[in-house]
Amino acid sequence: MKVSDIGEQGLLKVIQQFCPSDVIGDDAAVLITKPEQSLVVTTDVLVDNVHFSEITTSPEDVGWRAVAANLSDLAAMGASPLGITVGLALPGDIEVDWVERLYCGMTECLQQYNDNASIVGGDLVRAPVITISITAFGQAHPQNIIRRNTARVGDAIIVTGVHGASRAGLELLLHPEIAENINEADKQTLIKAHQRPQPRLDILPIRKDINFSQISGMDSSDGLADAVLQICRASNVGAVLEWQKIPVPKVFQNWLTPIQTLEYVLYGGEDFELVLCLPYVEAEILVQEFGKNAAIIGTITSNLNVVVHDDKKEIPDQVLTLDRGFQHFNI
Amino acid sequence: MKVSDIGEQGLLKVIQQFCPSDVIGDDAAVLITKPEQSLVVTTDVLVDNVHFSEITTSPEDVGWRAVAANLSDLAAMGASPLGITVGLALPGDIEVDWVERLYCGMTECLQQYNDNASIVGGDLVRAPVITISITAFGQAHPQNIIRRNTARVGDAIIVTGVHGASRAGLELLLHPEIAENINEADKQTLIKAHQRPQPRLDILPIRKDINFSQISGMDSSDGLADAVLQICRASNVGAVLEWQKIPVPKVFQNWLTPIQTLEYVLYGGEDFELVLCLPYVEAEILVQEFGKNAAIIGTITSNLNVVVHDDKKEIPDQVLTLDRGFQHFNI
Question: What is the pTM of this model?
Answer without folding.
Answer: 0.89
